[in-house]
Amino acid sequence: MSDCIFCKIINGDIPCAKVFENEHVIAFLDISQVTKGHTLVVPKIHKENIYELTPELAQRVFEVVPTIANAIREQFSPEGINILNNNGEIAGQTVFHYHMHIIPRYSKGDGFG
Ligand code: 5GP
Ligand code: ZN
């Protein structure tokens, strides 16, 4: 999708801080991290939201999440991690290319010190 910001990242047209990549999925730091290490997990194929994901694509997205969560845990040592996904404007979705948020949680604030 030519006007999709995440498709542009996937195509390498705009930069990102890449955390993980395989054939089907890319993960990169959120440009506006709510806490240190806030990461987005994104299928490379453009699908707007959860309603458009096939079970196969949902599996491809979710199967990499434990690896990424463990890498974040090792790198940043959060006390916990939220995993969430917004679908629809009313639910807080602002980028309409499906993505999962991995948000590390720290006992002392946002982790940036
Ligand atoms: P949503 O609100 O749709 O669930 O999440 C979209 C997320 O994408 C937001 O947290 C926002 O900060 C992030 N975002 C928007 N544009 C960019 C960008 O160009 N690069 C990166 N890395 N993240 C972005
Ligand atoms: Zn897209």
- In the sheet with the most strands, the strands line up as 1-2-3-5-4
What name does the CATH topology carry? HIT family, subunit A
Q: Largest beta sheet, briefly?
A: 5 strands, antiparallel
Q: In angstroms, what separates the terminal alpha carbons?
A: 38 Å
Instruction: Give me the number of helical elements.
Output: 3
CATH class: Alpha Beta
Which structural category do the helix and sheet elements fall into? alpha+beta
Number of domains: 1
What does this structure look like?
The protein is of the alpha+beta class and 113 residues long. It has one domain (5-105): 2-Layer Sandwich (HIT family, subunit A), CATH 3.30.428.10. It is built from 3 helices and 5 strands. It has helices at residues 5-10, 55-62, 65-76; strands spanning 18-21, 25-29, 39-43, 80-84, 100-105. A 5-stranded antiparallel beta sheet has the order 1-2-3-5-4, with helices on one face. Bound molecules: guanosine-5'-monophosphate (5GP) and zinc ion.
